[in-house]
Amino acid sequence: MPRDELERRIRDAVTREIEGGRPVLEGLEGRVVRRLARPAVRSPWWTRAMASLADTRIGLGWAVVGGVVTLAAGIFAGRGLFLNPNALSAAATDLFTVAAPGAKAVAVVGDFSAWQPIALFDHDGDGVWKVTVALPPGRYEYAYLVDGRWVGQDPLAAEYLRTFGKYVSVRYIGGDGE
Amino acid sequence: MKGLLVGLAVFAVGASAQVPSPSPDAVLSFLQTMAISAELKAAFSPVLGAGLAAGRATPRGALELLQRLAELPPPQAEEALVVFHDALARGIIVDTGAASSLMNRVLMRLRMGSPWELVQYELRARYNALVATEEVLLRYGVIGRGSQAPGGVVLPQDRLVLEIAWAVADWQLDPQLQTDPLEVFVRDRLVKLGGPVLAKSMVDSILPALTLGLLQEIAGRVFQVERR
Q: If pLDDT is split at 50, 70 and 90, which confidence band does A87 have?
């Protein structure tokens, strides 16, 4: 049975019980009982949601904390969209992805970031970490840092270089090397 | 409701905020704060400023490099900066934001945690390759004389010199690459770069000139002790 129908039947039963057989209530008590017995006017859900948001009152301190957190979240999201400030005019974006199940932090470092780490994310928890980086055409050397460990051989790389005992991966963006 | 709108606005402001690229002045200002000799600062500052203005280095790469070098003992930082000074003074491109870049190479080695001796060894080898490539190509008549100065206009041949030198040094420094003959490796690299990085017409015209003798002459100077 629908909830509204159930509420209507209960109110009808209460009304019948009050109006039949019981002594007539007078004054404030009577008005309260009669108001309770009347069907309530339910506002639509969106009106109730708006009202609850409008009624929310928080202290100044919490408002500042919330603002800072929201701003930080925005900056974080923005960096995810525009990871390479030098490459904002680039026509191409390139996906860096690495399987690292159980890793706590994965980053890619390369020429495109002046070898500063760019975080990869595993949003769905399947152990495959990803990030998309805007890259102008060129030849790029890079490696992954999996929990701080250097991983220089990316299966998706065009080439590998090994100098002085460590590998780096190479990608060509644009041109015949793509 | 107002709170929700304000929250969304704050989020949007944060999301649209970019990491600003530093200005050349910021790079030069940072150089002045480094614990290196006043003489080197005085010599390097105008060269770096001119190189940044001409596009032989990028402010972001240069500032990142200086910040990393500032964390090292001053003698090591000075050792590296002398090489960058000499390269820029010759009109060599030291930072492209891509792989073929002296600045990026030092940043990569420092990120790897390589010992300083190795960082310096590779920096010298790459510099030697760049100087040798320019001199050999010029002598063979493959390129004309460029600006040879940090502030001169960057010519397409400057990038060509950089990419040939980088390929030769890669081949020299990675024994695994030596399964291919030197000239095959260098030609293959240039063909891959043809298009967005190097003009295809330039690559096509340069390939016949890249003889084994010419490339071996460059390769032979990569590990030479520099004459300064």
A: very low
Instruction: Tell me if residue A59 falls in helix, strand or coil.
Output: coil
Task: Answer whether A75 sits within 8 Å of B14, measured CB to CB.
Answer: yes
b or e along B130-149 (b: 16 or more beta carbons within 10 Å of the residue's beta carbon)?
bbbbbebbbeeebbeebeeb
Cβ–Cβ < 8 Å for B105, A168: no
User: Would you state the pLDDT for residue A174?
Assistant: 81
Q: Say which DSSP state A143 is in.
A: E
Residue B49 CA, chain-centre distance (Å), reads: 15
Give me Rg for the CA atoms of chain B.
20
**If DSSP codes are grouped into helix, strand and coil, which group holds residue B177?**
helix
A127 and A119 in contact (C-beta within 8 Å)? no
Do B207 and B142 contact (CB within 8 A), yes or no?
no
State how far the Cα of A67 lies from the Cα of A61, in Å rounded to an integer. 10
Cα distance between residue B170 and residue B216, in whole Å: 13
pTM: 0.73
Dig out the tokens for B99 from the structure. Answer: 């792989």
Q: How far apart are CA B65 and CA B53, in angstroms?
A: 17
The answer to whether residue A153 neighbours chain B at the CB level (below 8 Å) is no
A with B: how many residue pairs have Cβ under 8 Å apart?
139
- In this complex, do A175 and B197 lie within 8 Å of one another by their Cβ atoms? yes
- CB nearest to B60's CB, from A86, A173, A174: A86
Collect all residues with Cβ–Cβ distance below 8 Å to A139 and sequence separation of at least 6. A170, A171, A172, A173, A177, B98, B99, B100, B192, B193, B197
Q: Does B96 touch chain A (CB under 8 A)?
A: yes
CA distances for A139 relative to A90, A134, A178, B172, B194, angstroms: 14, 13, 9, 19, 11
Q: At what angle do helices B116-139 and B74-89 cross, to 10 degrees?
A: 10
- Taking the Cβ of residue B191 and every Cβ of chain A, the question of whether any pair is shorter than 8 Å is answered with yes
More confident residue, B83 or B5: B83
Interval A103-127: pLDDT, tens: 999 999 999 999 999 999 999 999 9
A54: closest chain B residue by CA: B1
Start-end of H helices in B90-211: 102-112, 116-139, 156-173, 182-193, 200-206
